[in-house]
Design brief:
about 280 residues, alpha/beta, five-stranded parallel sheet, 7 helices, 12 strands, about 20% strand, globular
Length: about 280
């Protein structure tokens, strides 16, 4: 059972709201002449993680996107940015009406910060917190626009895996604001690299079952208002647990990466010395 807290009532709502095995998710991006930015990509990321969580809980899901009517070039840039962040592309697209609204029905409406509330028709509303960008020299406005290079280039240093941005944003509750700083991004990059090296090392050990307490806790926190930060904390704890064999650690990380989408098994097959 999945539950999301609807901000309009402050109460958790079971998903899907009727007894069936298909969860319909609509991600709403605002109508704006300024383009899209990291806040909008975060909404797409939340929709992606929700769909992945539904599948982990035995539900099929369908995600569709509502946007302004995009020129071909801008749509391509948006597609590339989603791909870089590991976001599965929405299966269906829709276009806002000229008055700024789209009357779309879904079980869950994921709204980027600044999207008009009237876009949702029925279903649960999910309000995604804004993403702020900061540099040591000056504050950077909320929206690094999706122009020719896209917003990730304003955040990710050359040569850095953009999935470090995904990890950074997953470390915060979806409704809270996130500020992307160089220090925070570097921390996410280091942790991501460390975990990948460990997973590659553990993959060489005999497979063992995921510890029951870890599996139960992960299912519980994901079902309770999409508690992804708690999943990351759980993985950090598993790393140091001496009672969990290497093969079980590998299976745990590989299984939960189905939700996280961090490509944690990327280094499997390469020889690495385990990080300490």
């Amino acid at each position: 059972m999945l539950r999301i807290v609807d901000p309009r009532t402050g109460r958790p709502v079971e998903l899907p709201s009727v007894r069936r095995h298909l969860l319909s998710i609509c991600v709403h991006l605002p109508v704006s002449d300024a383009g899209f930015g990291m806040t909008d990509l975060r909404a797409l990321l939340v929709g992606d993680v929700l769909a992945r969580t539904a599948e982990l809980h035995g539900l099929q899901s369908r995600t569709f996107l509502t946007t302004p009517d995009l020129p071909h070039e801008r749509a391509q840039v948006l597609d590339r940015a989603m791909s870089a962040l590991g976001v599965h592309p929405p299966a269906i697209g829709g276009v806002h009406h000229p008055n700024g609204t789209l009357r779309a029905a879904a079980d869950v409406h994921v709204h980027a910060y600044g999207t008009a509330a009237e876009d949702a028709v029925g279903g649960v509303r999910v309000d995604v917190g804004r993403v702020g960008l900061a540099s040591p020299e000056r504050g950077v406005p909320d929206r690094a626009h999706l122009l020719a290079s896209g917003p990730l280039d304003a955040v990710v240093p050359e040569g850095t895996d953009p999935l470090a941005v995904r990890m950074l944003m997953l470390g915060h509750s979806y409704r809270t604001p996130v500020t992307v700083t160089g220090t925070a991004l570097e921390g996410a990059r280091r942790t991501l690299g460390c975990w990948r090296r460990l997973v590659a090392d553990w993959a060489q050990a005999p497979s063992r079952p995921i510890p029951a307490d870890v599996l139960r806790h992960a299912h519980d926190v994901l079902a309770d208002d999409l508690g992804v930060p708690a999943v990351l904390d759980t993985l950090g704890t598993v790393v140091t647990r001496v009672d969990v064999p290497a093969g079980a650690k590998f299976e745990t990380f590989a299984f939960l990466d189905r939700v996280l989408g961090l490509d944690l098994a990327r280094e499997v097959g390469h020889q690495h010395r385990a990080a300490t």
